[in-house]
Amino acid sequence: QPPRAGQLLTLLIDYEAGEGPGVCWLAPEQTAGKQKPYMYTQGQAVLNRSFFPCFDTPSIKFTYSATVKVPEGFTAVMSATSWEKQKDNTFVFKMSQPIPSYLVALVVGDIVSADVGPRSRVWAEPCLIEAAKKEYDGVIEEFLAVGEKLFGPYVWGRYDILFMPPSFPFGGMENPCLTFVTPCLLAGDRSLVDVIIHEISHSWFGNLVTNATWGEFWLNEGFTMYAQRRISTEVYGLPYTCLEAATGRALLRQHMDATGEDHPLNKLRVVIEPGLCLFLGVNPDDTYNETPYEKGYCFVSYLAHLVGDQSKFDAFLQAYVNRFKFQSITADDTLAFFLEYFPELREKGVDSIPGCEFERWLNTPGWPPYLPDLSPGQQLMRPAEELAELWAADGLNVEAIEAVDITGWRTYQLVYFLDQVLQKSPLPEGNVERLSKMYPKISKAQNAELRLRWCQIILKNNLEAEYSKVKDFLHSQGKQKYTLPLYRAMWGGSETARALAMETFSATAPQLHINVQNYVKKILGLE
């Protein structure tokens, strides 16, 4: 029968899914326990079309339910507001809030959970669950409470974290109710818990108010970076947050130097031809870069700077979330609402201040026309810069070095110090060996951010005595952001370093994500 206008239809589609790029099947050796296989889905940006039939665009939101039957000895979890286990190892899920397709996620594996707060639990393989519980007990609720105070109610019910197998190529994926994260966050001393603040911030920016197209990804990530740094300022103070933002700005600088400032990806509004991506075999992940995050953060900071009063801008963010919750919007919607909310700024014509026009922010590639003031971070940066200077000197001033106590330095201050040392490397003969002995907190760190920098320093200084640390780190995890820089450094180094790259890759390739394997092959000329 021809349906009437406005009549609701139920459509039943019979389909099979298997080998698509959105569904990752891991062999036991790619997991932490090495005993059982594992499967997970990764929808962002346009991969869930290979997992289930959907309108695979962030412009459309829907609720969903799912029934998942898995073999004995396995557990299924999804990004859903309710979760129920029935007989025959069947799990039933419901997501009662509307979400875009890329946020539907499923994991099946040998996983268990532990409570870490009134509305939070951690999920992990049995061999990791104790470490996960110890690292996150009590901290998530603090971050959620500050987020709610700043941005309004947390609407997703639970906030659980799933620690993925070591081969998971990303830092985190903000699937609602169930964030997926790299096991690299289990540093053993809570030194990386603030990475979770970024994923928690997506609960308002990205998951609740969503970019309608991937060409305006900064609406998700720029606002989330701003929100993350607001929460971090409340929890850890302004100096530390400015220091973290300075490391972010350095990454943006590196990225723009590598691509050239006027590269078309270095604007906030990127033209993505509909459908062209997959047709041309362009993986949207290849367009992923620092611009929407850090340049987006600068634009949101510029809007706050125009308002000139933090509490007024916080109130605006809360009104913005409330106005557009459960919707997908464009930058034009965001900026029109900003000018409507602050009519006195609209009168002043703040959208067209020469050099900082909103239009220019969106459509001109290159360095941000406005940079927020990070000088409060100087009190943490200056000591790190001075210490790096001392270590780069020809004759070491041991007395001056010993006078600096780094035991109280937090992760980003140490990272900033190591970035400075790396820039000054290779250091004079013998200095790196002394540095390694003097700071076991750095050279023997379990913290992945410190391990990455220490491995880079080892390679840049050709410190063959510690090459085993590079090998161990690459055997322990497969995160893209850690793996590729180390292979680039080895490949650009000595014969021994190149041999180390080949040997490590042939041993670890099976445990890497397919995308990461291919990127490493490119670096090593194995294509």
UniProtKB/TrEMBL annotation:
Its cofactor is Zn(2+). Residues 379-524 form the Peptidase M1 leukotriene A4 hydrolase/aminopeptidase C-terminal domain. PANTHER family: AMINOPEPTIDASE B, LEUKOTRIENE A-4 HYDROLASE. Keywords: Aminopeptidase, Hydrolase, Metal-binding, Metalloprotease, Protease, Zinc. SMART domains: Leuk-A4-hydro_C (SM01263). A peptide binds at Q42, G43, Q44, P169, F170, G171, G172, M173, E174, K479, Q480, K481. GO terms for molecular function: metalloaminopeptidase activity; zinc ion binding. The active site is at E199 (proton acceptor), Y293 (proton donor). The keyword Protease applies. GO terms for biological process: proteolysis. It comes from Scytalopus superciliaris. The keyword rRNA-binding does not apply. Belongs to the peptidase M1 family. This is AMPB Aminopeptidase. One of its GO terms (cellular component) is extracellular space. Transmembrane segments: none annotated. Binds 1 zinc ion per subunit. Zn(2+) binds at H198, H202, E221.
